[in-house]
Amino acid sequence: MAQTLSLMTKLGQRMPLFKLLDTVDFQSKKSSELIGKKGTLVFFICNHCPFVHHVIEEIVRIANDYRIQGIGFIAISSNDVSKYPEDRPEKMEEFARKNKFEFPYLYDESQEVAKSFEATCTPDFFMYDADGFLVYRGQLDDSRPSNGVALSGYDLRVSIECILSNKPITIIQKPSIGCNIKWKNSN
């Protein structure tokens, strides 16, 4: 399995605006409708990536723990479905239902949204504060599919707790590692 690191986009940037198809209810959703009152986590995932399969239960637990506290959660898949048909919108709906998503799972067909976030891998996490500024990007925690470290969501949980407590995020932000986004017109 190929490993790609996230780019570690510069902190302080505004969250890009977008409108994408939600594969859970097949309605178009604007980012402005999905943001949380206290902050928003945008994360890039896909259905077939073993790194995503490894962390998906913890992502759902984190969403369930923090949605009620005012954090918005937005999952996006940007893979080229002509080359990776298991990531098609219909399959995204199945994946969302199987994993009990209580948040939108959006399809970025043009891949423009992934590019605007500078997303590179799945999973790739971008945490924005209540004002829409990037305050955290990188990994969920130190666990990987084959390293034996238990899932905890530590890095992401600490970041969310800091946002909820109006404290600066002081943990060392490490890049996420996962499968590369499957770009169109690339070999």
Question: What does the secondary structure layout of this molecule look like, with pairings?
Answer:
Layout: E1 4-5, E2 19-22, E3 27-30, H1 31-34, E4 39-44, H2 50-66, E5 71-77, H3 89-98, E6 105-107, H4 112-117, E7 121-122, E8 124-129, E9 134-138, H5 154-164, E10 177-180
Parallel strand pairs: 4-5, 5-6
Antiparallel strand pairs: 1-10, 2-3, 2-6, 4-8, 7-10, 8-9
Question: Any overview of this molecule?
Answer:
The chain is α+β, with helices and mostly antiparallel strands and 187 residues long. The protein has one domain (4-180): Glutaredoxin, CATH 3.40.30. It has five helices and ten strands. The strands form two sheets. The chain has a seven-stranded mixed β-sheet with strand order 3-2-6-5-4-8-9. β5 (71-77), α3 (89-98) and β6 form a beta-alpha-beta unit. It starts with a strand and ends in a 7-residue tail after the last strand.
Give a brief rundown of this model.
This protein is α+β, with helices and mostly antiparallel strands and 187 residues long. The chain is 26% helix and 23% strand.
